[in-house]
Amino acid sequence: MREVAEASLGRLREWGWSVQWRCQACGGLGRSDIDKLIAAKGEDYRLTDRGAPCRTPGCEWFVQFYAMLGMRRQSLRTPEGDSYWSDRYHAWKLKQYRNGR
Ligand SMILES: [Zn+2]
After folding, report:
1. pLDDT band at residue 1, thresholds of 50, 70 and 90?
2. Structural domains of the chain, count
3. Closest by alpha carbon to 37, among 76, 3, 81?
4. Residue 58 C-alpha to ligand 1 middle, in angstroms?
5. What range defines the domain where residue 60 resides?
């Protein structure tokens, strides 16, 4: 489903997908308002491989984005983005561990 993973916000909305964010570190998750995102960023904006700072108090990690359609969930990541984020995540965890957290 690379097509969905790399689709623009306008395309996702056209195809009926909604957007969810999830944080790997704290387990937080929620729904993103695709209309608001489009109003702020434009229809051509893509969430592919992006991360946004997690808003959970005390959490210092980033949320990732997923497209949701009924029971289907597709991460908005390419294999390249996946390895980028998992490398960063492991480096961050290691730093936390060294800092005694
Ligand atoms: Zn978090």
Report:
1. low
2. 1
3. 76
4. 8
5. 2-98
